[in-house]
Amino acid sequence: MSQALVVHNYIFLAVMCFFLFFFLSILNKLTPEKFDKLCLELLNVGVESKLILKGVILLIVDKALEEPKYSSLYAQLCLRLAEDAPNFDGPAAEGQPGQKQSTTFRRLLISKLQDEFENRTRNVDIYDKRDNPLLPEEEEQRAIAKIKMLGNIKFIGELGKLDLIHESILHKCIKTLLEKKKRVQLKDMGEDLECLCQIMRTVGPRLDHERAKSLMDQYFARMCSLMLSKELPARIRFLLQDTVELREHNWVPRKAFLDNGPKTINQIRQDAVKDLGVFIPAPMAQGMRSDFFLEGPFMPPRIKLDRDPLGGLADMFGQMPGSGIGTGPGVIQDRFSPTMGRHRSNQLFNGHGGHILPPQSQFGEMGGKFMKSQGLSQLYHNQSQGLLSQLQGQSKDMPPRFSKKGQLNADEISLRPAQSFLMNKNQVPKLQPQITMIPPSAQPPRTQTPPLGQTPQLGLKTNPPLIQEKPAKISKKPPPSKEELLKLTEAVVTEYLNSGNANDAVNGVREMRAPKHFLPEMLSKVIIQSLDRTDEDKEKASSLISLLKQEGIATSDNFMQAFLNVLDQCPKLEVDIPLVKSYLAQFAARAIISELVSISELAQPLESGTHFPLFLLCLQQLAKLQDREWLTELFQQSKVNMQKMLPEIDQNKDRMLEILEGKGLSFLFPLLKLEKELLKQIKLDPSPQTIYKWIKDNISPKLHVDKGFVNILMTSFLQYISSEVNPPSEEPDTSSAPSKEQLEQEKQLLLSFKPVMQKFLHDHVDLQVSALYALQVHCNNNNFPKGMLLRFFVHFYDMEIIEEEAFLAWKEDITQEFPGKGKALFQVNQWLTWLETSVEGKQASRTKSRHRITSGTDTSREENKMQQIQM
Question: In angstroms, rounded to a whole number, what is the distance separating the alpha carbons of residues 860 and 862?
Fold first, then answer.
């Protein structure tokens, strides 16, 4: 390896480490308050390779697994990255409408989550399978592994809520967790069932809709049966019972589980004031004295009473949101933090519960002398050293991961003074001089007046440092809720339908600044609101959706999601609007005309007769709004398989032709109608002149070079020949060869059709290959009668209907569109080998003959030259 390559690799690794370290620092700071700002920072750095993107995904997933409470926040981050992160996979293939477009980020994220899901119990089972009791460190590792296992399930559910994971994947996860594995006892399914309850609590309401009701009923029936099993631990049975009751109560959780996601600091403080009555008093005015300073060793009793029983909650109110180990969702607030007490909003709290005396410097010069005179300096030193040694001893027993997190760099420690929590939101905090505490023993009695000439020791610093406060940040207006958006949409659409001013409607939608995931429901509202109005209003609504697409506000996927949402509501809408499917077909037709969606995009979710006959109604509207030729060309370009658009019971050619004729759409398949009529015409008059004239009069010249037409033409000839050689009254024997008379009759009939075949197949090798496939399918449908395929191959070759090149192209073609290729090759392989050898021999003989002619000419020329020289 060259030195330049080694240097390049080292530089690349260094850049990678820098990027990932930067992303990790952003994740550590992520909170609901800083979400938008940090997301913008993360995207602005630039994810310029798939490797960096994969590293970012690994960091996000690891954080989400370690901190399940903040899964919703990390899911929102993934949604932002899925929309805005670069896509390194190139243009994606067309997916299912209504599903988010596949990107590199979504693909890598789902791959990582799938790996975690499939190995969910691996780390827990390592400890469960041990016979000996676990050590404390092992118990801790097992608890961490279980938290990650449940965190992964919850994270999958949160992503499912945001449509980053398709419903089909969520159903697969649920089925995997519910199924009984072979050689696994029911009591060993506890981990899977706990994961099942977790995913149901997280994403169950989204999955429990009309289309998936039968599946959900099966899931919960299985859960009810497991709930009654005595083999499962009681804790798992109660978890199942809670989940079943949650669905029975329409997925409304109990108060204990309500709103259990991440909150801002202000929300937490407001909740504490509301529920617990805990508050932090505002700083006192200068010169004021009260009993607040007279009790306890340097600790006000009211604060101490609030602090002791509440523990970490009091810490939350007493310090700024950055004073623990790290910042963001991963903050660990404990007494081992080296920054404990540095960010208190009031220096009264400096220390642990009032057990460490403040430094002498805080009392000023007079206070320090007083402490020395009273012997308090030595007491302060002894208590400080004792507690310090106690903390050091306890830190040795801490797990390594906590001791590492406790080591903060200097630049990670915030030195900004904290603002006190104000109960009155309208009150403006004032700059106060710092108040230092004086020991109770150093304070004179209230009735005692200070001696003359002695300055009263109020503990006030004469020259407090000026604190330059930053201007208050203007809080961003939160995005509107779903209900607000729907009301605004209804008002905009009503005004638009009445006034007809499309620009005002588009501007109104733009000013809503709706999140992208709410757009489908807003478009559904536009469609539904116009269904019971006039055709003119429906056309206006369609035009509005097209304008939103042109302005970049909505996308084709948004429309398809909205359209499918309305289709799901059809049973309810049909009560008041009986022709709702016909009206929706108008919306779909206008969307296709305006190129909002394509026919293939509309057809995909309607396959197998879903919402039948909506797709056919849409084609009817297209033919009505445009013309037949335009629709025929557009439909052929879409390559939609019409048979798949019908219910499964009707998926055959005869039934399809019957349905299309009933809807007036048979013009889309002129060849399908030809298949029946051509065979009837041949039976009426098998002369080649009559057949050719009928084809010219009834079939468009454009179709004469169509493979489908050639397939039907050859199939009709072969069916007629078989019916004449083997009358329907006689059951053909496929195992025995036909008689000489039958073979001669077969040859003569084929010879009579030769002019028609040559007319359409001459000089078209691709059409000749289609003719061979028609022969192959005909033989396959008749169970390959003995020698039939080989006979026709020889006849086609001898009569010069099919050229050698077409035979060899058919042999090499590997398409699986037509059945019976394997058997057909087996029957004619030897003949094809002979044909290939003869073709090579002909080419060689032609080359030799050309060489001889050239050599002979050259010899004669040389002889003439010699004769001329001699003369």
Answer: 5
H or E, element range at 233 = none
Question: What's the rounded Cα separation, in Å, for the pair 412 and 342?
Answer: 13
Angstrom distance (rounded) from CA 419 to CA 412: 19
Q: How many CB atoms lie within 10 A of CB 490?
A: 15
Residue 458 has pLDDT above 70, yes or no: no
Q: What is the CA radius of gyration of the chain?
A: 42
Q: Rounded distance, CA 303 to CA 317, Å? A: 11
pLDDT at 790 (0 to 100): 93
Structure tokens at 284: 């006192």
- Closest C-alpha among 639, 657, 647 to residue 614: 647
From 660, 672, 579, select the one nearest 616 (Cα to Cα). Answer: 660
Residues sharing a CB contact under 8 Å with residue 295, sequence separation 6 or more, in sequence order? 301, 440
d(CA 673, CA 712): 10
224: tokens are: 């009810």
Assess contact for 602 and 641: CB atoms under 8 A. no
The CATH fold assigned to 1-87+103-165 is 1.25.40
Tens-place pLDDT, residues 293-314? 444 444 444 444 444 444 433 4
What is the SS3 assignment for 435?
strand
Integer Cα distance of 708 and 17 in angstroms? 60
Per-residue three-class SS string for 843-869? HHHHHHHHHHHHHHHHHHHHHHHHHHH
DSSP E strand stretches across 480-531:
none
Higher pLDDT, 752 or 97: 752
Per residue in 30-62, pLDDT (tens digit) is: 888 888 888 877 777 667 778 888 888 888 888
- Establish whether domains 482-668 and 670-726+739-855 are of one fold: yes
Query: Look-up: residue for tokens 């997933």?
Result: 61
* DSSP letter for each residue of 91-120: SPPP--TTSPPP-HHHHHHHHHHHHHHHTT
The domain at 670-726+739-855 falls in which architecture? Answer: Alpha Horseshoe (1.25)
Alpha helix (H) residue ranges in 569-669: 570-576, 580-593, 599-603, 614-625, 628-638, 653-663
- CATH number for the region 482-668 comes to 1.25.40.180
Q: Please give the single-letter amino acid code of residue 340.
A: M
For residue 425, give both structure tokens.
């939101």
Which residue, among 63, 191, 182, 64, has the nearest Cα to 126 in the 3D structure? 191
Residue type, 301: P
**What are the boundaries of each domain within the chain?**
1-87+103-165, 482-668, 670-726+739-855
The Cα–Cα gap between 68 and 374 comes to 53
- Cis amide linkage into residue 417, ω under 30° from 0: no
Contacting residues for 225 by C-beta, under 8 A, at least 6 apart: none
Q: Which residues fall within 8 angstroms of residue 535, CB to CB, at 6 or more apart?
A: 586
> Are 74 and 157 in contact, with CB atoms under 8 Å apart?
no
Alpha carbons 140 and 147: distance in angstroms, whole number: 11
Bridge partners for 319 per DSSP = 344
Query: What are the residue ranges of helices labelled H in 234-375?
Result: 234-248, 265-275, 301-310, 312-318, 364-374
What is the distance between the alpha carbons of residues 145 and 406, in angstroms, rounded to a whole number?
A: 22
Which residue did the predictor score with more confidence, 644 or 255?
Answer: 644
The answer to whether 631 and 670 have CB atoms below 8 angstroms apart is no
Answer yes or no: are the C-beta atoms of 509 and 489 closer than 8 Å: yes
Res 49: pLDDT = 77
